[in-house]
């Protein structure tokens, strides 16, 4: 009898995994086809593209974008936006470099950086949750404040990092997998569980879908706003730690434009900028497209300035597709 129950339980789990996989493929069929087509085009023009070394390099490069995009996915689903994450990276890198050069132990440096991310997220969340100021304005102001602080503190110079143990955080490997990718897997799992397996996730979707209805149903809107911006602040701090370790420095220029890459990945992955809809699975594909596009253009020797133009086109197309989807939804 016990064995029969175990077999039934296993079959139920397999059916659930199968249906989830089919649902994922159906939801993301369009961008998956685009991703495959992009890989085929690049691999034809550059035989280096499909080598293990290059693919691991691509994953390492997109990991920082996906840290930010994970937080941005939750924020956009809830109907917000966070433009301060790029400048947050710069502040965290400068802080890490300064503390390391003062002889502060690595665990305390990491803790200080993560707490700083929490503080920045708390400030953003508190202002947005307790006022009617638009998230765009609040986080844009924070972007300017943080970037300015990084420049003022360093005088526009780079803070060098020579601590090999800290540098290994961004450059080390677990087997053949880069450590930043290992951290990313943990982050993506956490975001998946939050959005799909928790009451908090249901509340986030409800707030983004219809804030007034969510409030009437007893959801604490302020608490949700605080959580999403704190989480985004922590993700930006993690990105700052990893990037500073990879680049051997804390640089006030670090993370410039990173918020745009994160938003592009999220919107390209199907998350609505109007809130209430989105999946972390789509965001992963969106980040892969952007990362592979940049890598492919570099391998093919195309001017890096074209990457900026193409990212702008990608964002515009993704937002237009989102607009068309929402218009069709409103008509039905």
TrEMBL record:
GO terms for cellular component: plasma membrane. One of its GO terms (molecular function) is transmembrane transporter activity. It is found in: Cell membrane. CDD domains: TM_PBP1_transp_AraH_like. Keywords: Cell membrane, Membrane, Transmembrane, Transmembrane helix. It holds the Pfam family BPD_transp_2. The chain crosses the membrane at residues 29-50, 70-96, 108-129, 135-153, 165-195, 226-245, 266-293, 305-324. It is a multi-pass membrane protein. InterPro entries: ABC_transp_permease. It comes from the Bacteria. This is Monosaccharide ABC transporter membrane protein, CUT2 family. It comes from Acetanaerobacterium elongatum. The lineage of its organism: Bacteria, Bacillati, Bacillota, Clostridia, Eubacteriales.
């Amino acid at each position: 009898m016990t064995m029969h129950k175990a077999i039934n339980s296993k079959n139920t789990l397999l059916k659930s995994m199968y249906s989830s996989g089919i649902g994922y493929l159906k939801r993301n069929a369009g961008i998956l086809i685009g991703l495959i087509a992009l890989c085929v085009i690049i691999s034809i023009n550059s035989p280096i593209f499909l080598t293990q070394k290059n693919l691991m390099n691509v994953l390492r490069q997109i990991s920082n974008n996906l840290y930010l995009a994970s937080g941005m996915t939750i924020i956009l689903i809830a109907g917000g936006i966070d433009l301060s994450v790029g400048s947050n990276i710069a502040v965290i890198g400068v802080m890490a470099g300064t503390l390391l050069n003062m002889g502060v132990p690595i665990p305390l440096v990491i803790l200080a950086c993560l707490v700083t991310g929490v503080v920045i997220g708390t400030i953003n969340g508190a202002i947005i949750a307790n006022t009617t100021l638009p998230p765009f304005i609040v986080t844009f102001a924070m972007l300017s404040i943080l970037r300015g602080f990084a420049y003022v503190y360093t005088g526009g110079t780079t803070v060098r990092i020579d601590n090999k143990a800290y540098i290994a955080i961004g450059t080390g490997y677990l087997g053949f997998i880069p450590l930043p990718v290992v951290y990313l897997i943990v982050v993506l799992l956490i975001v998946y569980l939050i959005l799909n397996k928790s009451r908090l996730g249901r509340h986030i979707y409800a707030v983004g879908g219809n804030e007034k209805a969510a409030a009437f149903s007893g959801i604490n809107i302020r608490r949700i706003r605080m959580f999403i911006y704190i989480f985004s602040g922590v993700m930006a701090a993690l990105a700052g730690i990893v990037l500073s370790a990879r680049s051997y420095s804390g640089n006030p220029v670090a993370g410039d434009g990173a918020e745009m890459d994160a938003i592009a990945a999220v919107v390209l992955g199907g998350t609505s900028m109007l809130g209430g809809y989105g999946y972390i699975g789509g965001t992963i594909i969106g980040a892969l497209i952007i990362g592979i596009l940049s890598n492919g253009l570099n391998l093919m020797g195309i001017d890096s300035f074209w990457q900026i133009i193409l990212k702008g086109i990608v964002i515009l197309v993704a937002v237009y597709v989102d607009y068309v989807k929402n218009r069709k939804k409103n008509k039905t």
